[in-house]
Amino acid sequence: MAQAVYAEEIELHQTPDWADKPYSLQRDPLWRVTKTAKDFKDFWFYHCDHLGTPQEMTDHTGVVIWKAQYKAWGECKVEQAKSDFFENSEIISNNIRFQGQYFDGETGLHYNRYCYYSPYVGRFISKDPIGLLGGSNIYAYAPNPVGWVDQLGLAKTPTRTLQKNWKNYVGCKHTNLDIHHGFPEEYAERFKNIAGIDVNNPQYYYNLPKEKHTKSPGIHTNSSRTGQNWNKTWGGILNQVEAMNLSQAESKEILEQRLRALARKERIGKHNATAVKGANFCQLQ
Q1: What integer pLDDT is reported at residue 126 of this predicted model?
Q2: N or C: which end of the chain has fewer CB within 10 A?
Q3: What Pfam families is this protein classified in (predicted)?
Q4: Backbone dihedral region for residue 140 (phi beyond 0: left; psi -120 to 50: alpha; all else: beta)
Q5: What are the CA-CA distances from residue 163 to residues 89, 150, 186, 280 (Å)?
Q6: Which of 106, 146, 89 is nearest to 122 (CA)?
Q7: Where are the alpha helices (DSSP H) in 222-247?
Q8: Secondary structure class of 46 (helix, strand, coil)
Q9: What angle, rounded to 10 degrees, do the helices at 230-243 and 248-265 form?
Q10: pTM of the full structure
């Protein structure tokens, strides 16, 4: 991960209002203006641990300009900036903490998209937006901060629960790397309201092999090509189905069809729990 630094403000183009007139390519300033990109004042590189938490920053010459030490739940215990290493130099700051978190200097809290997180107590200060769907403790961050991340501030179903559900449904233990939801937990409430779908129904689980999903312990998706756009894609699909004003049964049928189509596209259909169960895999072991 890297960060480009400019010495002056970045000039942006005025976007015309096309509400009362048709779009015109010839009048669009983005196509009419040609400018040379300004040079960077500096270029900083982040050096992160296995969870993606920044440990050090270096400039383009490899010199350390910022580094930090953290307590177990993300509180920055020791922070050193460039001015500490070299006299009369500018102060370099970094507010990125655990994945998905941004440090707020005024409150001492970490902004975690859907809610604020307190690194001092290792808990969110407001209830989990998805309620009990994220677990019985609605203020919890993750079971273990050394092996888990919660990038969105929405706790995931524990791995052991997924494994138990898989075994009960399929008839035997999973054999590949890990088990994942076909319908993203991030939209659990929307799936339930629109189509009466429980995202934790094991028939929608996928047991992905290593080549389809490479990850560190506890990190859910986004580390492979398959997972990078999965949640984003489903957000768009839900918007489309919601706008159709269908019954729950009709919406469920469409969403299940889309899930099967996406699985075929990514070539993970055979790893679905229903497919594994239908292939009598457990009897062949």
Answers
A1: 86
A2: C
A3: RHS
A4: beta
A5: 53, 20, 19, 18
A6: 146
A7: 225-228, 230-243
A8: strand
A9: 150
A10: 0.48
